[in-house]
Specification:
Number of strands: 14
Distance between the termini: 85 Å
Number of helices: 35
Strand order of the largest sheet: 8-9-10-11-12-14
Strand content: 5-15%
Helix content: 55-70%
Radius of gyration: 37 Å
Shape: globular
Number of domains: 5
Length: 822
């Protein structure tokens, strides 16, 4: 297949979305239209290989672009698909030009991972860059295959605000420093003269011997172990040399070398700030002692509530919520369900077309689209009466003339006044905080997220103005010039006027809006931490910020997952490498680059693609992930086994322990001289306290740190526990003819077994545990087995066989029957 035809195949498949098995047919149809006869045939596999070659060309284009980079910023994100973890990777290369910096953005592909830990993500980045660098070196683009050169160019990392991403930033910064110091140290070693080089080699060997534990242990090592130790020592000493050279630089030069900035996605800032505001709004009702929005119980919880006083009813009440956000979620499920076959979607559109003359689509809250809940509130308050009217028509069109449970919830919530308060508050916030309109405005492509400090300061100031003077939004003469953050027309003017139509009937709207804004402000400050006056950005120069240019949002990573899901749905058998080849070729704009490559580079691409195709890398990666999961499962099993053994050993030790249960005995042991028999050491006190925590009075502190920090405080805790245990001893009782003298018997049912505790005034406690075996151990002091009968009836019956011991006297073996509620 000619090179130009191979490029055409890649364009049709990767850019135009033509299926690989239809490409030849497309050529023939075009040939017929042009009067040209197309001969021959190319298989789908060959077309797929042409696309894979194009994907490799995209990788070479990225590597070649790094040669002129003044800075490189990375962006990443993760998600799961069919229970597998995927990581998305993007890079922006900043190149100096006479008219300013040129930004080249590259998609580096999706990568499967065993988990989403920061360490695994770091290793994924390192492995990806290493493969790209090795390919660039093999193609003759790079002089070296040492990928550490790439990491010295990295100046920034862009992600969301999750803790694992911030940790990943720290790990990548640490790795960049190691790479830079290592290269700087190696440069120093290469410049050494003979005496200095001999001293360096001696130092390396001496350090390796020291780490091994001396010359004798060094001599015992094998040749491979010695070499590994020498290599490790050499790397560390080289890095130390690099650090020494680095410290010779001026502070400005050091800042340029170590430049590595982080910025969080602005979309996630707005999302989290909105969630913070919603939380503050939910707290408002209880704090003011006002009637909260009606709870929207699902079908099961509504049924559970009918069993008043039960645990199920209590749980149903606790887990159920209401309010504007819950209402919008339910409306999304009814009016625009993520499963397009379900819900009232087209019916609603037809209804609005009939009523208003145009179609209204409900925001995609069922898919939790960004800002869909804010926009949903604006739609609901604008057309509140029409939504009620529509649900009435839905009800009357049913044979039963009854709404289903979810529809009834929505219908009632649309009439609920507290819920309407929240809908209006959310709508006003959505209209006033036009943050995303500025972020995603016409000039957003030129925005550097690192230059948005003024925007965030203006945002906080506007929120403070609204908190101080809510009339900027609520007054009859309120306008967008003072109410909207950017001073431009409301995003939805009809929603603003709808809020004012309902506002006179909402007495708490002003205070609720203030609560929302206050909580949102606190969240904004927390999620805009990179713009703090004492942060790294504040100390960075103009040139450094330009070298670390980053997008204002992480939309590229987010959208790459969506495109992958769509591709995987349409092409279930497509490999991840084939998807990456298509996506990289299209996003990176590699078509023109590929056409300019010479015959030698084209031959290289065909050769490297054949090697990749025959390597079985896709299956190897899947096997590695499966093996990793097995290893994790086996480690967890072993860890649980060890933990259970420790628990069992601790329980056995408690069972063998003779607890001190009289104040006289306790005070006597406490007052003995140290090292004497029965002296109450801290270890003994801890054992006694552990026993009381397990079997003793409920007032015993559960955390060891609350027991005290020394012998005296621990003794005081133990004394209190013994006192409480003594006070809980009830009167003598008889059960089923069993006479127990000087003993109180307490029966407590715990899941599948019953623990019976026999307390004697002088001798302590004897524990008898039941199991479901039919056998009874032989009589003796250690006999602690109880046979359980009648576990399905309303009483639990035990056959006891206990041996007389000291002051404990039992007239005979007998049967005890105890109601289950005991």
């Amino acid at each position: 297949v000619a090179d130009d035809v191979r490029v055409a195949f890649a364009d049709l498949v990767a850019i135009d979305g033509v299926p690989a098995n239809k490409v030849v047919q497309v050529f023939r149809r075009i040939g017929v239209a042009l009067g040209v006869k197309v001969e021959g045939h190319v298989s789908r596999r060959s077309v797929g290989r042409c696309v894979a070659e194009a994907g490799n060309a995209s990788k070479l284009e990225f590597v070649e672009a790094t040669k002129n980079a003044s800075g490189i910023t990375l962006a990443g994100d993760g998600t799961s698909h069919k229970n597998e973890t995927y990581e998305s990777k993007f890079a922006t290369i900043i190149q100096d030009e006479s008219d300013g910096n040129k930004k080249l953005q590259f998609f580096l592909g999706l990568q499967m991972a065993a988990n989403h830990t920061s360490e695994t993500q770091r290793d994924g980045w390192i492995d990806t860059i290493k493969q790209l660098w090795e390919m660039g070196h093999e193609a003759g683009i790079l002089d070296s295959d040492d990928a550490r050169e790439f990491w010295t160019l990295v100046t920034g990392f862009h992600s969301d605000h999750a803790a694992d991403q911030k940790k990943l930033f720290g790990l990548l910064e640490e790795y960049k420093t190691l790479c830079e110091r290592g290269l700087r140290g190696e440069k120093t070693v290469r410049g050494m003269l003979s005496p200095a080089l001999e001293s360096f080699l001696f130092k390396v060997t001496h350090e390796a011997m020291r780490v091994a534990g001396g010359s004798a242990k060094w001599d015992a090592l094998s040749a491979s172990e010695k070499q590994a130790s020498i290599d490790k020592s050499r790397k560390q000493i080289v890095r130390d040399l690099g650090e020494d050279e680095f410290r010779k630089l001026s502070p400005e030069e050091q800042a340029d070398v170590d430049l590595f900035l982080w910025a969080g996605c602005c979309m996630h800032k707005e999302l989290n700030a909105f969630k913070g505001g919603v939380f503050g709004m939910a707290q408002f009702w209880a704090q003011r002692g006002l009637e909260a929005p009606m709870k929207l119980y699902n079908r099961d919880n509504a049924a559970a509530l009918k069993a008043v006083g039960t645990e199920a009813a209590s749980r149903a009440e606790d887990v159920s919520t209401g309010g504007a956000i819950k209402l919008v979620s339910l409306c999304g499920a009814i009016f625009r369900h993520k499963d397009r076959k379900r819900g009232q979607q087209d019916s609603l559109r037809f209804f609005f077309d009939l009523e208003l003359g145009f179609v209204v689509s409900f925001p995609d809250s069922s898919n939790t689209r960004f800002q869909s809940h804010e926009e949903g509130c604006a739609v609901l308050i604008t057309y509140n009466d029409l939504f009620i009217k529509f649900l009435t028509y839905v009800r009357e069109n049913k044979g039963s003339r009854t709404l289903n449970h979810m529809e009834k919830n929505v219908f009632q919530a649309l009439h609920d006044i507290p819920t309407r308060h929240e809908i209006c508050a959310v709508t006003l916030y959505y209209l006033a905080i036009s943050y995303m309109r500025e972020i995603r405005g016409h000039s957003h492509a030129e925005h550097n997220v690192l230059r948005l400090r003024d925007l965030h300061e203006r945002l906080i100031a506007h929120i403070e103005d609204l908190i101080e003077n809510p009339d900027l939004l609520l007054a009859p003469d309120a306008s967008c010039e003072t109410g909207a953050m950017d001073g431009k027309m409301w995003e939805r003017p009809e929603a603003f006027y709808a809020v004012h139509r309902y506002a006179p009937d909402l007495p708490h709207l002003r205070d609720l809006l203030i609560a929302f804004l206050t909580a949102a402000k606190e969240t904004w400050l927390r999620f805009a931490e990179e713009f703090s006056p004492d942060g790294r950005l504040a100390a960075a120069t103009f040139e450094q910020i330009e070298r670390a240019w980053m997008e204002v949002t992480n939309d590229l990573c987010e959208s790459s997952f969506g495109m992958f899901r769509q591709t995987a749905k349409a092409n279930p058998t497509m490999t991840l490498s084939q998807h990456n080849a298509r996506a990289m070729y299209k996003f990176n704009g590699t078509s023109d680059y590929l056409r300019k490559l010479g015959p030698g580079m084209r031959a290289f691409l065909r050769r490297i693609t054949r090697q990749q195709d025959a390597s079985g890398d896709n299956r190897r990666q899947r096997i590695e992930i499966a093996t990793s999961r097995q290893d994790v499962a086996l480690r967890n099993i072993e860890r649980d086994r060890i933990r259970l053994e420790k628990v069992r050993a601790a329980r056995d030790a408690l069972d063998r322990l003779a607890p001190i249960l009289t104040l006289t005995a306790l005070e006597y042991a406490y007052q003995l001289t140290p090292k004497s028999k029965d002296y109450l050491t801290i270890k003994v006190i801890n054992e006694q306290l552990e026993w009381h925590k397990t079997y003793g009075a409920p007032g015993m502190p559960k955390l060891k740190k609350d027991w005290g920090s020394n012998r005296d405080t621990k003794y005081a805790t133990l004394k209190a526990a013994v006192t409480e245990a003594r006070e809980r001893v009830p009167a003598h009782e008889k059960f089923g003819g069993l006479q127990v003298t000087g003993v109180s018997t307490e029966l407590t049912k715990i899941s599948t077994y019953v623990q019976t505790v026999l307390y004697t005034t002088e001798q302590g406690w004897q524990h008898i545990r039941t199991n479901r075996t039919n056998g009874v151990k032989e009589s003796g002091e250690q006999n602690r087995t109880i046979r359980m009968h009648g576990t399905q009836s309303r009483t639990v019956t035990y056959a006891l066989q206990i041996v007389a011991r000291d002051n404990l006297t039992i007239s005979s073996s007998a049967v005890i029957s105890c109601p289950l509620h005991h």
